[in-house]
């Protein structure tokens, strides 16, 4: 039974939550302290097909505004009912991207973090499930004063409330709202209605709508056809939304005639119809937008010109240009890196690793060929032959037993043949197992994730350790401090190139975790006395977080219990990946001066 509340209590509750309590056709929930006109909104919607790159468009335009000194808060509004992405299958939905605050979200948030070079929080992501849950919980606690609770105004009201709260909390000049799915889907229709209402309530020059659409070029016709685009845009207009900007996706640059038709049928001036055709790199999109004047169009539409900081913009533009220049220049150093994973099926499951390697390769001038090794298909004995051609190997995170023996064989090969190695999460754990078996002579060494009865559970499920952080038996999630030991490879990699905090025993860095199992402290001494170095650990507890082999025994062998790929950004490449790429370059060409390469890593400050 819900607790009974007095009418006055309920009134207070609603007012506190910003909900108008008197009977009115307007339901305009506004958080306390919200100033209308202070915050502007850009809504990005997709028409015709999904997968158009709304997130890329949205983050690129957001970047242009951020570069101008404006503060930006993006939000992804998903149509599905899941509360977060933690339970989604990465093989279907792409990787689970973990935010610093521990929210398990989808890869689109990764795109925003990378392009904006900004950490996001759980406020930057919502699902229909979250919205409904809030409304239903409020209904159960008597929060609607006996009214019938409806999609409009209550569910749409909750959407508007969240957006305004986000604006307020993150003090955003501009909130970029990306609605998942396509206009016309059942799942997102209440978001679209809420956004229409938001534009109405916020008044003039406060909300801009961007519609992404797609122009088809059937090979048999050899010309671009805009009918589907027109129909998609019509659907949006039927929902009461007049687009202000149209981004036209296409394989090739969109022809003038297609742009004109789209402009004419959607009442959008041609100068605001942008050809967002396929490009070599998504990182060139911000510049292309600027060249077509989209940034200043947005400023005009939202009346933001007087908030621009020109000096900030010039500096940001130079940094980005330098990166793009490096990205496009010919790379002299060819290297091959192998990743254990099934690329074809998992393209998006390792999106952040792909990007992290790209950031580092760009900065170091490496021309990288990535190859994917499906360890479920290669027997451990066949691993050495399969690895011969590589200059570096990554064993990424994973769950479940399949393919782990072959992963261990990969690690053994790298350790014995001095091939640069980066182990991530499961790849860290398997490196411990490999070392325990083959160096410490603990033949049965295993992780209890795969073998509960092993005599040497070097990797184990240790809920009591997690209780220290108040996590109980759950997955350890999100950003945590890692204490880095001085005079180690990890210290060299992170020192000066990363935001670190001093600590009595070295310095701490912050990285993001998503794991259940960890090194059993009972084996630490045995592992270390046989030569394994734990160069990163929990600042107070014996929880091991970075491992490495001594520099004089291996050129580059490192593993992280966390996911370094989640914090790599184009202008702030991740140190462990930089180290891997540099070491792989040396592996391919021993004449390369790795020290000089390492020392040129003042990328973070200069970019
Ligand atoms: N399965 C391992 C664990 O739960 C590793 C997890 C991961 O690689 N993300 O600890």
Automatic annotation (TrEMBL):
Enzyme class of the recorded protein, top EC level: ligase
Gene3D superfamilies linked to this entry: 3.40.50.880, P-loop containing nucleotide triphosphate hydrolases (3.40.50.300)
Pfam short name (any one): GATase
GO cellular component: cytoophidium
Keyword Metal-binding: yes
Stored InterPro entries: Class_I_gatase-like (IPR029062), CTP_synthase (IPR004468), CTP_synthase_N (IPR017456), GATASE (IPR017926), GATase1_CTP_Synthase (IPR033828), P-loop_NTPase (IPR027417)
Start and end residues of each CTP synthase N-terminal domain: 40-304
Keyword Metal-binding appears in the UniProt entry: yes
Reaction catalyzed: UTP + L-glutamine + ATP + H2O = CTP + L-glutamate + ADP + phosphate + 2 H(+)
EC numbers: 6.3.4.2
Example of a GO MF term: ATP binding
Ranges of residues in domain Glutamine amidotransferase: 346-581
Pathway(s): Pyrimidine metabolism; CTP biosynthesis via de novo pathway; CTP from UDP: step 2/2
GO biological process: 'de novo' CTP biosynthetic process; pyrimidine nucleobase biosynthetic process
Family, per entry: Belongs to the CTP synthase family.
PANTHER family attached to this UniProt entry: CTP SYNTHASE, CTP SYNTHASE-RELATED
Protein name: CTP synthase
